Amino acid sequence: MQPEAVIQEVIKANLRGRGGGGFPTGWKWDATRKANDYPKYVICNADEGDPGAYMDRSLLEGNPHAVLEGMIIGAYAIGSSEGYIYVRNEYPLAVTNITIAIEKARKRGMIGKNILGTDFNFDIKINRGGGAFVCGESSALFASIEGRAGEPRANMSMPLIGAFMTNPRTSIM
User: Fold this and answer.
1) Higher-confidence residue: 164 or 100?
2) How far is 80 from 64, CA to CA, in rounded Å?
3) Which of 144, 171, 147, 146 lies closest to 159, judged by CA?
């Protein structure tokens, strides 16, 4: 299946993001794929700072392969070769389980170079958040992944194109 066909299936399925805005995933992927900015990144924001919120934690602890599968499919669809999982440091079991899942996926040829014998390359890094509530906001999360203070900056509501990894115009899904 070609990347554009994957995006169309996601649009038809009306899959939406898990964040507060519930933005349609397929439309975000489509816009990111069409953006002429490189590199493109897939970022899993698993930094839930709301008291009593454990949906990200439970997914990373209980079904980390589903997170990886979604990231891999998204990366293929948008043309990304690099992904990040940003997870709270206070979730050691989630970090352990997603790390094990990444290692298993890499051994099976699902992450890394030439995935399943194709020219598709995609790798994932884990970043542990310091527990700052503000890092759930996308621009603060980007700053934290880059090793800077997790402080938000003025941005648009959907951070499709923004400053990340010292590149002033990167595409981010």
Assistant:
1) 100
2) 20
3) 171
CA distance 115 to 122: 8
Radius of gyration of the chain (CA): 15
pTM (two decimals) = 0.83
Q: Are 86 and 46 in contact (CB under 8 A)?
A: yes
Higher pLDDT, 10 or 59: 10
**Long-range Cβ pairs for the range 19-27 (8 Å, 24+):** 19/45, 21/157, 21/158, 23/158, 25/74
pLDDT of residue 38: 80
Q: Which residue has the higher pLDDT, 17 or 29?
A: 29
* Integer Cα distance of 49 and 169 in angstroms: 28
The DSSP code sequence of 26-69 is HHHHHHHHH---SSEEEEEEE---STT--HHHHHHHH-HHHHHH
